[in-house]
Design a protein that fits this description.
This protein is α+β, with helices and mostly antiparallel strands. The protein has 6 helices and 12 strands. Strand 1 and strand 2 form a beta hairpin.
């Protein structure tokens, strides 16, 4: 049993390998403890869906939305109604909750784009860049720069993070009054504009048959019921990679070198980056921007 933030947590199976290479549950817990100062601002107050691997990433996983049985009373939760369904989500507001979730092998944390208190109001707009083979992270970097440039023309600043695999997300913080209908329509318009400008590399259509060697600019993530993997979340893959914020200069350098392999980071590398660079995603949690009228831009 350990004491974290005034709460006692019983840790179990600390030596269990959670990744085929031997990355153990104790290391997962240690990672989330150390990355918490950078990660928590992007989770605080938000409903979180978890993906759990009870026996490690070589075995089966499952998504979990509702709080599990035995959730400690000190863990913050929030009831959110989606149409006719009421879900009581975990809200990861502190280090103790991150440790408790890691102890349950919740390797991936997927927050929603709104705060639990205002489920109708997104605080951020996301563009999820999903490559169709043989396209991969390098092609996402190139398209990510196109997303940045177009949003910049429309008056919106944005920040990138890699997914921990072959994809990338671009976040445009808002933190001003808007609705999901507005962010979805806006992001769809941006995705279609990019598709028209570069149809050989970009698609806005979800059909997998259209993704071959192209990057899907997935605007549909801007929805009250959808989630996107959190900044700094581990991924349930063969290696303990994490979804890590990156600087646009790093994205530009990868495209110029035609090599994005240096933008896939494992847990220890993410901690080193946070120690040396700070939270490259900090502005996403606080920057206030108004959603432009896309129609008025012509």
């Amino acid at each position: 049993m350990v004491a974290v933030g005034g709460h006692e947590i019983t840790l179990v199976n600390l030596a269990k390998p959670m990744y085929p290479g031997g990355f153990r549950k104790a290391q997962v817990i240690d990672y989330y403890t150390k990355v918490a100062p950078a990660m928590l601002p992007h989770l605080r107050g938000r409903p979180v869906t978890r993906v759990r691997w009870p026996h490690g990433t070589a075995d089966k996983s499952f998504f979990e939305k509702n709080k599990p049985a035995g959730t400690p009373e000190w863990v913050h939760t929030a009831k959110v109604t989606h149409k006719d369904e009421v879900v009581e989500y975990i809200v990861a507001d502190d280090v103790a909750t991150l440790v408790w979730l890691a102890n349950m092998a919740a390797l991936e944390l997927h927050p929603q784009l709104h705060l639990a208190a205002r489920p109708e109001r997104p605080t951020v707009m996301v563009f999820d860049l999903d490559p169709g083979a043989p396209a991969a992270l390098l092609e996402c970097c190139a398209v990510g720069l196109e997303v940045r440039d177009l949003l910049g023309e429309l008056g919106l600043a944005c920040w990138p993070k890699v997914s921990g695999g072959k994809g990338m997300q671009v976040y445009a913080p808002l933190h001003t009054p808007c609705t999901y209908d507005q962010t979805k329509a806006f992001s769809r318009g941006v995705a279609r504009a990019l598709e028209r400008a570069d149809p050989a590399r970009v698609t806005s259509n979800m059909a997998k048959a259209l993704r071959t060697n192209r990057v899907l600019v997935d605007w549909s993530q801007n929805d009250e019921v959808k989630t996107t993997v959190a900044a700094y979340s581990l991924r349930g893959r063969e290696r303990p990679t994490a979804s890590a914020p990156v600087a646009w200069e790093e994205v530009e350098a990868a495209v110029e070198a035609r090599d994005a392999s240096g933008l896939v980071f494992e847990a220890d590398q993410v901690l080193e980056r946070v120690a040396s660079k700070g939270d490259l995603f900090a502005e996403v949690a606080k920057r206030k921007q108004k959603l432009p009228d896309l129609g008025a831009k012509g």
